[in-house]
Amino acid sequence: MRTIIALLLIAAAPALADESQFRLRDGPGRQLVEANCVMCHSLDYIPMNSPILDRKGWEGSINKMIKVMGAPIAEADAHKIVDYLAGQYGK
Amino acid sequence: MRTRRDFLKVSAGGLLLAGGIRGADLAVAADSLGPATLPSGTLQSGQLAALPGKVALIKKSFRPPNFETPVRFFNEAFTPNDAFFVRYHLADIPQVSPQRWKLAVTGDALDRPFEVTYEELSRDFEQVEVAAVCQCSGNRRGFSQPHVPGVQWGHGAIGNAKWRGVRLRDLLAKADVRKDALEIVFDGADRGVLDKTPDFVKSVPAWKAMDENTLVALEMNGEKLPHWNGFPARLVVPGWTATYWMKHLTSIAATAKPYQGFWMNPAYRIPKGKFPLVDRFVSQETEVNTPITEMVVNSLVTNLEEGQKFAFGQEITVAGVAWDGGFGIATVEASEDGGRNWRAAQLASDLGRFSWRQWSHRFTPGRTGSHSLMAKAINRAGATQTFDLIFNPSGYHNNVVQRINFEIT
């Protein structure tokens, strides 16, 4: 009986918040996005904000991350990141 | 304290995610993440998930954690602590030890700066309580048309609680705050992962800081603050949006100059003259915009779901809550015919002008078919909700009157 209750408790427990299960859409630049963005925030920020931004919008977002939030993203990488975001999560 | 009823509520959410989801359950799962008018990516990436110490809430982002409260929890006058929404800008969030924590009362516009420990704060100052709505400035941002970037909140970046702690003005008085104090500036223990990221620092005008209702709260609904809601102490600014309610408070600084920082400007700004607001934050105003201040009049239906079906002849009780920026709610009106006729709803007891007010409305539709219910609140200053969105680039102050369709069969 005790085992059954224990098993029921496990089954009924809410899913604990765990960002490691989250995956971005596959596409050119995905690994670059993961490498640069994940240091400050979970990657689910990207799909949450979709489809809202067009290419210009994503450019503005990446610019803000670099200029305001201090993200150390190289300029060449920033272009590829914008390509990925606009292509996979653009309006 | 987790009650059995809470446990059962959580179980329902948890089981949906436990795998083997059937088709009918999927519809429930999708609906529980918010209305279909949210961006599709928000609904696809959302899930019900629990932070440590919290029940399963609607996850918007994992890190920094942004979790909203499912609407059904708003059928209670006070929102349970373990279901209260969580909102952070920055991901370095320390677990604060009350033994080591100190709060500094400092700045160039006071004469006797001091530090206070958790024990001193809870022992040496008068403790007072206020019931107040805590609502994220961006609550309902996800319904903006067109959509605007930011955390895509539905209806649940809000909660009502009894906040207990020390009056901010008592702390400022002990520090001999001077007459030339223009703003009071607040910092908390959370910060960005990178040193270059602007720390989340906020200021309020001195007049609002000196208001008897503005508190440094240690308790929420009779318990210590949950970690995710600002333990060990948070600022409570009744009437004003939650951006000012600094969590994990570490310093309070009086200054004679307007505080300059990213989170005051350009962040958290509304266009001037677009909203019927009363409170002004003059020292921060520019030609075109102003910091967000008090909440606009608003209401929420908490027990009726879009598309819900009722049997013909059955009496329906619609319930909800209504709130504003501190005048208090005077009336809530409900319409059962899509806004042609309005009738006064029944108001529950008044829990204070900063609390929300529960309301209910009973009616029996006289015909079968599609119906739509609307509700709007009016505050004691005569302000009410809008029928058309007042668009602004950050999606703030969305108090568009809800329209919920239901069927009589």
What integer value in Å does the Rg of chain B equal?
22 Å
Number of strands of chain A: 0
Tell me the major beta sheet of chain A.
none
Determine the most extensive contact between two protein chains: A-B, 31 and 47 residues
**Mean pLDDT of chain B, as a whole number?**
93
Question: Radius of gyration of chain A, Cα only, in angstroms?
Answer: 18 Å
| Beta-strand content bin of chain A | under 5%
Total number of helical segments of chain A? 5
As a percent range, the share of helical residues of chain A equals 55-70%
Mean pLDDT of chain A: 90
Task: Please describe the topology of this protein.
The complex is a heterodimer of chains A (91) and B (409).
Chain A: H1 2-12, H2 30-37, H3 45-48, H4 55-67, H5 75-89
Helix pairs in contact in A: 4-5
Chain B: H1 4-17, H2 23-32, H3 40-45, E1 47-49, E2 57-61, E3 66-68, E4 86-87, E5 102-106, E6 114-117, H4 118-123, E7 127-135, E8 158-167, H5 168-174, E9 183-188, E10 201-205, H6 206-209, E11 215-220, E12 223-224, E13 234-236, E14 249-255, E15 269-271, E16 289-291, E17 298-301, E18 308-310, E19 316-323, E20 329-335, E21 343-344, E22 346-347, E23 357-363, E24 369-379, E25 402-408
Parallel strand pairs in B: 5-14, 18-25
Antiparallel strand pairs in B: 1-2, 2-3, 3-4, 5-6, 7-8, 8-11, 9-10, 9-14, 11-12, 11-13, 15-16, 17-19, 19-23, 20-21, 20-24, 22-23, 24-25
